[in-house]
Amino acid sequence: MNIAIIGTGNVGSGLASVLSKTNHDVVVSDRKGGVEAARKLKVDGVDVKASDIETAVKTADTIILATPYSAAAGVAKTGDFTGKLVIDVSNPVTEDFSGLLVGHTTSAAEEIAKLVRGATVVKAFNTVFAEHYANLGGQKIQTYIASDDEQARETVKAIAAESGFEARDAGPLKNARYLEPIGFMNIQFGYVLGQGVGIAPSWIEREAA
Length: 209
Known about the structure:
There is one protein chain. The protein is of the alpha/beta class. It has 7 helices and 8 strands, in the order βαβαβαβαβαββαβα. It has helices spanning about 10-20, 35-45, 55-60, 70-75, 110-115, 150-165, 175-190, and strands at about 1-5, 25-30, 50, 60-65, 85-90, 120-125, 140-145, 165-170. Strands 3-2-1-4-5-6 form a 6-stranded parallel β-sheet, with helices on both faces. Strands 7-8 form a two-stranded parallel sheet. The N and C termini lie far apart (about 45 Å). The relative contact order is 0.14. The mean pLDDT is about 95.
């Protein structure tokens, strides 16, 4: 599978580092053509290709939007997303991290789906701090995967599992309305309440009494 990661900040670069260890072909892309990001990743032993955004969208099977939510509209204008699998990892937080820009009756993922009509949108990885990508060994980090397309959920679950996550089916895309507040609360715990970036939400399973 050809995977394009649009956005080369900590999250995008982190996803590139783990996906590069799978059998998928990985391209990193940003407004500068992804060249500098690919060079930095190569120094760390991560071998990925670089591309401008328009070409990345055109040639990829799966596109990971690792940009801030506010940048999604601009990315959506760069090409034709018809037939693509689009993974949204954003949390639509305000600039001061005091709340969410959208919620309750919609979500970032649902709004992005309106922008990339013809694509299949999946919400995933939004509850994972970028620092976890450097070490996914030991206790598995959970990621929650929501989409209206069951096959798309299965595909992204497989990608997540190959990358070292515990992938959990989170149902239809509208459930991103609840996953994004979990991502926001994770940010609150980690940064605002001082618990650090080594934390991650997890659903435990126990036998009913």
